[in-house]
Amino acid sequence: MRTKIVAGNWKMNKNLQETKELLAELSAKLPDTDADVIVAPTFVNLQAAKTALQDSTIQVAAQNMHFAENGAYTGEISADMLLSLGVDVVILGHSERRSYFGEDDALLAKKVKTAIEKDMKIIFCFGEELEDRKSGNHFALVESQLKNALFDLEANAWNKIVLAYEPVWAIGTGETASPEQAQEMHAFIRKTIADAYNSSIAEGVSILYGGSVKPANAAEIFSKPDVDGGLIGGASLVATDFTDIIKAI
Ligand code: PGA
Questions:
Q1: Residue closest by Cα to atom 9 of ligand 1
Q2: CA 107: distance to chain centroid?
Q3: Contact at 8 Å (CB) between 90 and 61?
Q4: Residues with CB under 6 A from ligand 1
Q5: Cα(89) to centroid of ligand 1, in Å?
Q6: Which ligand 1 atom minimizes the distance to the CA of 171?
Q7: Which of 142, 155, 157, 158 is the most exposed place for a label (fewest CB within 10 A)?
Q8: For ligand 1, atom 6: residue with the closest CA
Q9: DSSP structure string for 55-114
Q10: What separation, in Å, do the N-terminal and C-terminal C-alpha atoms of the chain show?
């Protein structure tokens, strides 16, 4: 059985007070679930989040990190800094990091390598732009994103990888991939991994869908056999929306 996961990517939202309030509300309303529930507040609030969730099953993730051990990288955050707070889950490759901060597959491959060396769990995001989908290039594009950043990993690293397929045209736009489009791509991703590694790795990896998941559409998307949960942006900022999405899995 693959692990089901609902992860909230808070992006650049919620100050310290708001972070504490949202986490208190989330903890109070958290439904019984088999799924792993993860939240990713901004770096400056990770420590407060860890403290607020010390008696909770909700896990805390970072939204990004640098690949280097330490050094002259002004404004950056290392794996050790995260680990020293007890944060051992990191989102890498989010489309906003790729498009606004120039993160390409080669850079992401370095970050992935560091995270694996540090024994961190990675939620690796990827997905096509609208033009790729319109031109029918979306499968090739997704395959190249996986290959370039992940397929140099040793087979045993894959138990630390969670994939998040996020078509860029569906992120924050209110437009979702249809459940059928999500299933079609997730099945393709699994086959690509089976071809590159083997079927047991492909069958074991959790593949999340992300892009305008809301309480109203979550159950249908999560009902698809190759969709193992969601990476939630906007709707993770409202406790009842996020808990309703957790109930849908
Ligand atoms: P969204 O964001 O749910 O607001 O579309 C998803 C994401 O960026 O991970």
A1: 233
A2: 17
A3: yes
A4: 9, 166, 171-172, 210-213, 231-235
A5: 18
A6: 5
A7: 155
A8: 233
A9: TSS-EE-BS---SSSSSS-TT---HHHHHHTT--EEEE--HHHHHHS---HHHHHHHHHH
A10: 14
Radius of gyration (Cα) for the chain, nearest Å? 17
CA of 74 to the centre of ligand 1 (A): 27
Average pLDDT, the chain: 97
Tell me the CA–centroid distance for residue 238 and ligand 1, in Å: 13
pLDDT, tens digit (0-9, with 9 covering 90-100), for 52-101: 999 999 999 999 999 999 999 999 999 999 999 999 999 999 999 999 99
Question: For residue 214, which atom of ligand 1 is closest to its CA?
Answer: 3
Report the share of the chain in percent with pLDDT over 90. Answer: 96
Place of tokens 């090739």: 140
What is the torsion angle, in degrees rounded to the nearest 10, for the CA atoms of residue 148, residue 187, residue 36 and residue 215? Answer: 110
Cα–ligand 1 centroid distance for 191 (angstroms): 25
Instruction: Return the pLDDT at 175.
Output: 80
Nearest to 170 by CA among 178, 180, 162: 178
d(CA 231, CA 91): 10
Rounded Cα–Cα distance for residues 85 and 101 (Å): 25
Element spanning 183, H or E? helix 179-196
Catalytic site positions: 94, 166
Which residue has a Cα nearest atom 1 of ligand 1?
A: 233
- Are 60 and 44 contacting, i.e. CB atoms less than 8 angstroms apart? no
pLDDT of residue 173: 84
Eight-class DSSP state of 172: S
Nearest CA to ligand 1 atom 3: 233
